[in-house]
Amino acid sequence: MIHPVLPGRSPAESRLTLSQIMDNNDTNLMGTVHGGVLMKLADSLAGVVSARHSEGAAVTVAIDEMTFRVPVRVGDVLHLHAQVNWAGATSMEIGVRALADRWDSTVPAVHVASAYIVLVAVDELGTPRGVPPVVPVTDEDRRRFGEAEIRRAHRLARRAAIEDSRALSA
Fold first, then answer.
1. 47 lies in a domain?
2. Which residues, other chains included, contact 98 with Cβ-Cβ below 8 Å and sequence gap of 6+?
3. Distance CA 76, CA 144 (A)
4. Tag placement on the chain: N or C end, fewer CB within 10 Å?
5. pLDDT at position 1, please?
6. How many structural domains compose the chain?
7. Which one is predicted more confidently, 47 or 168?
């Protein structure tokens, strides 16, 4: 399928932050915020950022990586910051960084989690559609773009290796 060439967009054009106070409904058996709650919020925010970048719906196809650094506690204000790091013909990588303002402290916000989520833009029928390329503007944008290309290359190489392994055992 040939996708039209669209004008590029900078990461800043779709960058977004979501903030939420974490409460008892968000906890796991350890009494801290459940990792799945953070994953859901990160995926939801990535969906909005990808829709802003591509000007339409997008669906999650992979969570390339999600790391949890320190627990989030009840009462903390969770801030998720997301932006498009890279875009191909139909797919986009969205980087999400989660920080927590501790409810009982005046220390700066703590970096609690990071995620790299891959989404594909789709039309009304669910068919992949073209997306604008990412135009990195800042040094940080360029770093994130380059690292996203490395993650993509690893993802594609892993997929090819698994397919080759299955073909050999068939």
1. yes
2. 38, 41, 42, 72, 78, 79, 80, 81, 111, 112, 113, 114, 115
3. 28
4. C
5. 55
6. 1
7. 47
**Do the domain assignments include residue 51?**
yes
* Model pLDDT for residues 80-102, shown as the tens digit of each residue: 999 999 999 999 999 999 999 99
Asked, for residue 115, whether it belongs to a domain, the answer is yes
Q: pLDDT (tens digit, 9 = 90+) per residue, 139-158?
A: 999 999 999 999 999 999 99
The 3-state DSSP composition of the chain as helix, strand, coil percent (nearest 5) reads 35, 35, 30
Tokens 């350890």 correspond to what residue?
30
Q: Which amino acid is at 76?
A: D
Q: Are strands 58-68 and 77-87 parallel, antiparallel or unpaired?
A: unpaired
5 pLDDT higher than 70:
no
Task: Round to whole Å and give the CA distance between 168 and 43.
Answer: 35
Distance CA 127, CA 112 (A): 35
Whether the pTM exceeds 0.85: the reply is: yes
